[in-house]
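Q: I have 335 residues here and want to know how they pack in 3D. Can you give me a structure?
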Amino acid sequence: MQVLIVNQSEVARLLPMEACMEAMGEALRSLSRGESMLPLRQVIMLPDKAGAFAAMPAYLASPAAVGLKSITVFPGNQGTELDSHQGAVLLFETRRGSLLAVMDASSITAIRTAAVSGVATRLLAGADAGDLAVLGTGVQALKHVEAMSHARRLRRVRAWSRSPEHVRAFAPRAERSLGLRVEPAASAREAVEGADIVCTVTSSREPVLKGEWLSAGAHVNAVGASLPSARELDTPAVARARFFVDRRESALSEAGDFLIPRREGAVGDDHIRGELGELLIGSCRGRRSDSDITVFKSLGLAVEDVAAARLIYDNALAAGAGTRVELGGARDVGA
């Protein structure tokens, strides 16, 4: 059987942000309607805690596909020549179970994560929001600036990193690739105060965003932390906000941004107002007033990876992209 191999640079070309945002919206609708299947991901923390290995399967109802993302997560790679997330997405068809494609997971993760934040921003940010603060300057930062520029018309962009060198390098990179001027901020507080859209995309395990800094009406995409023991938002930031997630079950198992404030007694499970998919199908209410602070806690779902992989596969077939290899799957009738 021939399998399509799609490398890192091809993924970036075949998964444009606007199209990815549309695909993510449909995948989340499908999940909230109960049409897709998504078990909790399996994660193995390596003995030295330098990194983790994760396997994330999912079934997507429309367009029908089943797949698996398998990645390593090594936060210490940030600032090196290697991405913190590395691995592959396997895409299968659902009629006979044949493997269709193997794709680079780093690019898919970066693009689809930002695209989901873009969907959340369209749903939850104020209609005239356009003052963006980005905390963190890694791979996710650039993609999030791009996604935010699709979600809202940006008037101002500020970025902060614990490393002044990183933020100084990030600003011209964003301007070259996106045509947007980015102002380096000397502190996280300086970046956030006055912003009406905030994206936290750091590798920090301790809060980098304080609730007291948030302006009335601000929307936050909390992206970087994905372990029960790690968070980017302090407890007041969570307690002040109307809090939304990609999936309740995942958030109640893995989202330190929510679990730690709950453990402190500041919030209960009912503080989760809804899932993005529920907002999309109209079964829950998002922003109630211009002064509401909203938070979207992103953990990343395998159904998003499968939806992205299916879109890449269809685009690759149309463009004649990718490389075909013989990988097996046909029954050996001579055996």
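Q: Anything worth noting?
A: The longest strand covers residues 52-60. The CA atoms of residues 71 and 184 lie 32 Å apart.
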